[in-house]
Design goal:
Elements: E1 3-7, H1 12-23, E2 29-34, E3 44-48, E4 65-68, H2 80-100, E5 105-109, H3 121-135, E6 140-144, E7 149-150, H4 158-169, E8 181-182, H5 183-195, E9 200-204, H6 206-211
Length: about 210
């Protein structure tokens, strides 16, 4: 049996990954950690949690693969401390707990330009998270680094919609890393990373996302 845990299943990419995982015949059970309940399914165990107070000994940490698609925006999370926790601390806590319970594959939504030495706070946090995950020595670690996401959010901000529109209009002249990223393509890469990724660390770029978007 293959069990996959998904954190962030109520977001755009995480929700798509959840749908793909539930439909995937290679996966017998899905554990979705969420802040609010999601639709029930025969393969799904939905655990509504407080990500700031995760229990260390819960039986649902016993999974084979993990997908971390947690994220937020400044508009939704104006508190700098809470923003940092969602972007870096919660995914790292989930990684540590699942690794200590035997998980061997971890797939992460990171960001274009992630670098622990970046002068920009957002990409620096993503780089710090990547470095911490590498230190946990998952046998298989998949890192997906998207640009602006192209997909149907429940409530997209105006600046997000404008950014995607501009990037799409410039697609013919933009280098591949800077083109808008397909949310569907990202979700497919995450599921593969959690189920069947090769040993080692794999960093997926927009070129990889694009090849999985159809």
């Amino acid at each position: 049996m293959t069990t996959v845990l998904i954190a962030g299943a109520t977001g755009l990419v995480g929700g798509l990954a959840l749908g793909l995982a539930l439909a995937d015949s290679r996966i017998d059970r899905v554990v979705a950690l969420t802040r609010r309940p999601v639709e029930t399914h025969a393969k799904l165990r939905n655990v509504v949690v407080d990500f700031s107070d995760l229990p260390a000994d819960a039986d649902w940490w016993n999974v084979d693969g993990v997908i971390s698609a947690l994220g937020t925006t400044r508009a939704r999370t104006p508190s700098p401390d809470e923003y940092l926790a969602i972007d870096r601390d919660y995914p790292l806590a989930i990684a540590r707990l699942t690794r200590s319970h035997g998980a061997t594959r971890f797939a992460l939504v990171s960001s274009l330009g992630a670098d622990p030495r970046s002068r920009f706070a957002y990409t620096r946090r993503k780089g710090e998270l990547e470095s911490e995950l590498k230190a946990l020595a998952f046998p298989s670690l998949t890192i997906v680094r998207p640009s602006a996401l192209d997909g149907q959010r429940e409530s997209a901000r105006l600046d997000e919609r404008l950014a995607v529109a501009v990037l799409k209009s410039l697609t013919p002249v933009l280098p591949s890393p800077w083109r808008s990223s397909s949310a569907t393509g990202m979700a497919k890469l995450l599921v593969e990373g959690a189920v069947a990724a090769r040993p080692g660390i794999a960093v997926k770029t927009n070129a990889d996302v694009g090849s999985c978007s159809t």
